[in-house]
Amino acid sequence: MNALTDRSMIEICPLAALSVERGAAALLPDDTQIGVFLLDDGSVHAIQQHDPYSGANILSRGLVGTHVVPGGTPEESVVVPTIASPMYKQVWNLDTGEVIDAGGGEKKQIDVFDAEVRDGVLFVASSPRPRADAR
């Protein structure tokens, strides 16, 4: 059983409604605000909409990018997709929610929701993945 089948998936929108590398806000049935993203490589991502630094629900308006996470050797380094807050420019890993650049402040992780495309429609998990700092 994969992680996507462990939680109920909520239909969000047709994939064609999303612009590549631009976020869109969505509302889950429990009134949780999320940001959803379609990246240039075709992958889809969903994160909490709430920016833990500014307190505003703005992360779907963030700047999509990438960051090289260094490994023990250059060959072990990986490039991860990122989102930067449009307010104070903190940067998070879109795959894990871990903060990459806290702007000199406390590191505040964000929630990440499983996302998948089925028959051209984006679905997002009804609840976030467990956080790395909560394991």
Automatic annotation (TrEMBL):
<dbReference type="InterPro" id="IPR017881">
    <property type="entry name" value="NirD"/>
</dbReference>
<protein>
    <submittedName>
        <fullName>Nitrite reductase (NAD(P)H) small subunit</fullName>
    </submittedName>
</protein>
<feature type="domain" description="Rieske-like [2Fe-2S]">
    <location>
        <begin position="10"/>
        <end position="124"/>
    </location>
</feature>
<dbReference type="Pfam" id="PF13806">
    <property type="entry name" value="Rieske_2"/>
</dbReference>
<dbReference type="InterPro" id="IPR036922">
    <property type="entry name" value="Rieske_2Fe-2S_sf"/>
</dbReference>
<dbReference type="InterPro" id="IPR012748">
    <property type="entry name" value="Rieske-like_NirD"/>
</dbReference>
<keyword id="KW-0560">Oxidoreductase</keyword>
<keyword id="KW-0534">Nitrate assimilation</keyword>
